[in-house]
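User: Please check token order:
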Amino acid sequence: MELRNLITFIHVCEFMSFSKAAKHLGYTQSAVTQQMQQLETEFGVKLFERTGKHFSISAKGLELLPYANQMLSLASETKQVISNAQKPSGLLRIGAIESTCNYVLPEILEQYMKA
């Protein structure tokens, strides 16, 4: 399952239009249609009920929508956590005697903050 297909699915549902979703995402309408067909093939269900040029979200499409949002949210959270893994974060407590605090610690903390 590709995240880009889920992103497209969410936008199609949001705009209730394949062409508006395509324009918003910078895709062609045929690319959006193809992505929705890929999702339908992958799940083995129709996500949209098509009647001529109009469509509505099917019951299975409505069922998928909260999961798609949850998956994208989790993917975003994962990316944020992993990409910031190199940067120190959180509470830092240091215990030191007064002479160390006055003479050694300022330079160490300065280097720490630059890293």
User: Anything to note?
Assistant: The longest strand covers residues 48-51. The mean pLDDT is 89. The chain has six helices and two strands. The radius of gyration is 24 Å.
